[in-house]
Amino acid sequence: MKRAIVVTLLIGFLMSVGLTGYGYFKYTRMTGEWFEPLHSIQSDQWRQDEEPSPPNEQKKKEQRPRLDPFTIMILGVDTRGEKKARSDTIILAAVNPTSQQVKLLSIPRDTLVKIPGYGQDKFNHAMFYGGAPLVKQTIEDFLGIKVDRYATIDFEGFIKLVDSLDGVKVDVKRRMKYRDPSDGTEIDLHPGLQQLDGKQALDYARFRKSEIGSDASDFDRMDRQQEVMKQLADKATRFTTLFRVFKLMDILEEHVKTDLTSDEIGRLAILFKGFSSSEIETMELGGTSRRMPKHGYNLWFHVVSDEEKKRIQHLIQKTLEDDKLPETAGP
């Protein structure tokens, strides 16, 4: 009997070692595949405390790595098999690891901006003209805020990600029906609380034009996108098995591009352990709708005033400069 117990423990130990080694291999491969620095991004702000703690102090408390506050632009893109694409989702996030604050600013696709080298146009055209580097430069020029990091995910990856996390539960507020054979869009959702799979979640997040009733506004769309993002953030932090983690790694490896390194991601995971999406704050970029001639048409643009840009600058700067430690629930 004792021998059987020993053998069982030994097998369990070997399996855990094997899974740990395989997990490390998967993690390094994933971060190696998705790592794609933008030539225009240079930042020396990411650092780690280098002063070693005495051995007895290490036993008393877990050492926390250090990261300075940073901004990151998050882009949802749909290439549809093409090299060029317009960004369907444009989010600028301010992240403060010290105070564990995260603020999200969704930028309407129709926002009137000056795209370097192309003049005034809609914001989402920057991705088509010059990819993520040009989007970064456009954001910096438009808001006067330095963008430190970026991440992109394509539509196929979003669908797989949602499916791997068993979908998202949302309360659909209205009938959503729209079909566009030119790009394969086919949205058909009914009102009510329901569990959406990956394809349905993408439709829910993207819906704007409608075949039934009035079109949805860009702000309605951005609220839905943030709602889905928060749910995914919560689900992703509640891993149930290593095999689910491995599956997520496969998806991210194939469909995400970022200039976050494996070391930075590891430190963020430690610093934001136990973080809830309810703590994420959202900001709205106010403005007015205005028709303007462009590309041979009289198009609608979201026009943002200089005062509104300064307001956003202040909110983001306040988040980045806050050095107050988050409250803890206990010793």
Please tell me about this protein's structure.
Mean pLDDT is 77; it is low at 1-25 and 40-64. The protein has a six-stranded mixed beta sheet with strand order 11-6-1-2-3-12, with helices on both faces. It has a two-stranded antiparallel ribbon with strand order 4-5. Strands 7-10 form a two-stranded antiparallel ribbon. Helix 4 packs across helix 5, helix 4 (155-164) runs antiparallel to helix 7 and helix 5 packs antiparallel against helix 6. It has helices spanning 2-34, 55-60, 125-143, 155-164, 198-206, 218-236, 242-255, 262-271, 306-321, and strands at 70-77, 87-96, 101-106, 112-115, 119-122, 149-154, 168-172, 176-180, 185-189, 192-196, 256-258, 280-284, 288-294, 297-303. It has two domains: 1-34; 61-321, Aminopeptidase (3-Layer(aba) Sandwich), CATH 3.40.630.190. It is an alpha+beta fold. The radius of gyration is 22 Å and the shape is globular. The longest helix is centred in the first third of the chain and has 33 residues, at 2-34. This is Cell envelope-related transcriptional attenuator domain-containing protein.
What features would you highlight for this structure?
globular, Cell envelope-related transcriptional attenuator domain-containing protein, 331 residues, disordered N terminus, Aminopeptidase, two-stranded antiparallel ribbon, alpha+beta, six-stranded mixed sheet
